[in-house]
Amino acid sequence: MSLEGRDIIVGGKYKIGRKIGAGSFGEIYLGTNITSGEDIGIKLESIRAAHPQLEYEARVYKTLAGGVGIPFCRWYGKEGEYNVLVMDLLGPSLEDLFNYCKRRFTLKTVLLLADQLLSRIEYIHSKGFIHRDIKPDNFLMGIGKRGNQVNMIDFGLAKRFRDPRTNVHIPYRENKNLTGTPRYASVNTHLGIEQSRRDDLESLGYILVYFCKGQLPWQGIRARTKKEKYDKIMEKKMTTPADALCRSLSQEFAIYLNYVRSLRFDDKPDYSYLRKLFRDLFVREGYQYDYVFDWTIRKMQEKKLAENQGMRMDPPLYNNVPYDPLPVQQRRPMVTTGLPSPGIGHRTSTTQPYRAESKSPDTSKRLDDVMLQYQQQQQQQKLLQHQQQQYSHQPPVMIPQSTPQDHAYLSNHHGYAGTGGGRMLVRDNQASAGSSSNRMKSPVVACAHKTRRSRMSEVHQPWPPSRRRS
Questions:
Q1: Domain-ending residue, one of 253, 274, 296
Q2: Is 133 a residue of the active site?
Q3: 133, 154, 294, 369: which one is catalytic?
Q4: What are the strands, taking DSSP E only, across 114-206?
Q5: What is the rounded CA–CA span in Å between residue 216 and residue 262?
Q6: What average pLDDT score do residues 208-234 get?
Q7: Is residue 55 in some structural domain?
Q8: Is 378 left (phi over 0), alpha (psi -120 to 50) or beta?
Q9: Which pLDDT band holds residue 423 (cuts at 50, 70, 90)?
Q10: Per-residue pLDDT tens digits for 359-408
């Protein structure tokens, strides 16, 4: 029975609002903290569920607490006939943004995402967990000031790969059932081999190719039974080498897949090498780490087009994406919807997380905040450049704008400030980087009198094609 509209309070201060999602696991509601007025997400699971997992998921969230891009678990408990998990409210998933952008991301957006996604996976691995269901639906963008941050969710299938007491890796096993989403599952997962860190990274490789090309070769396979379909998907993956899968893409994608597929069961991946692989490509392409994604540009274009046509923008829809121009404090709750939800035929796992995406008015607020933040950053950059030119008679030291720089963190929640729980403006997940050697150094050009073109050519050297093993 739906709890929508019944003004139920859970955890002493969280009011259940409208329903924003459902699945075999239970129901997801938009909620409100009645003491602060803040919107939150409330995930409910029946205490009679055949395979209850919400309590386990809450424990995983608390173990991972403090990491960049890890939602904060505000409260977990039992209320009546439900297990209840109260968490941060987030924006749309990468799958929904992919659909919003006509199912194709530019290389720049893919590389911006790859950098953050690698850091999220590295962080949970550093805490002794593997996710086991890496897919676009399980990565959600933040809202408000954290609109540029990718958040990792849905740890219902997560598993410890290392004993927390002895630090010993789990043993190699075979004949395991397929866990996760077949479209993005690794070859070894299809073969029934126990999953480890390498499998999370292989799934990420398929996601990146999916974002670049719009689809994967094993999509759309038909079969009479699920087992037959999964076997056909496995066969297609095994007979599609990385070079063929990544044909027409930059060589870095094939190098990435070949590397993660070559890892042994208990190998520790070289996350820094993989990040540098894509960062060097990013620099060579001449991109800038301005965190302007494809959906940001699309939203700005739609807004500009509507203004030029003199159209009233509250509340008409453009491609099912609403726009609410009112200030955040004046917006009416539950009037507009967000970005389009996944298509009818899109598969969601039995551990589908709560999301704001197409059901929350905060989605349009998030997109507006992303644009506002970007404009403010551009204005600050111009102001700094003007001050340097006014007060300095020497040419400024040049640092490529396309190289990520150290920036301050903003605390995610009370009690976590300074512990890595804040939003990264540019530098991503420093706490999980391990050492300063994992960070990209920003080279300084010695000859300030040279032209900008010559300076940049000194900095951006071609990426070496050699491969490394951990």
A1: 296
A2: yes
A3: 133
A4: 129-130, 139-141, 150-152, 159-160
A5: 21
A6: 96
A7: yes
A8: alpha
A9: very low
A10: 445 545 555 665 565 556 556 656 665 665 555 444 444 444 444 444 33
Vertex 318: Cα angle to 150 and 355 (nearest 5): 30
Provide mean pLDDT across the span 309-313. 65
Q: DSSP character for 41?
A: E
Do residues 366 and 143 touch, judged by C-beta distance below 8 A?
yes
CB 351 within 8 A of CB 47: no
Same domain, 155 and 277: yes
How far apart, in whole angstroms, are the C-alpha atoms of residue 372 and residue 367? Answer: 9
- Same domain? For 122 and 62 the reply is no
Residue 105 and residue 174 share a domain: yes
Query: What per-residue confidence (pLDDT) applies to 7?
Result: 76
CATH code for position 176? 1.10.510.10
In a domain, 71, yes or no: yes
Q: What angle do CA 173, 177, 183 make, to 5 degrees?
A: 115
Strands, DSSP E only, in 235-313? none
pTM over 0.85: no
**Quick check: is 176 in a domain?**
yes
pLDDT at residue 380, as a whole number: 64
Nearest to 467 by CA among 279, 186, 199, 260: 260
**Whether pLDDT at 330 is above 50:** no
DSSP state of 103: T
Give the N- to C-terminal CA distance of the chain in Å, as an integer: 52
Structure tokens at 154: 């849905």
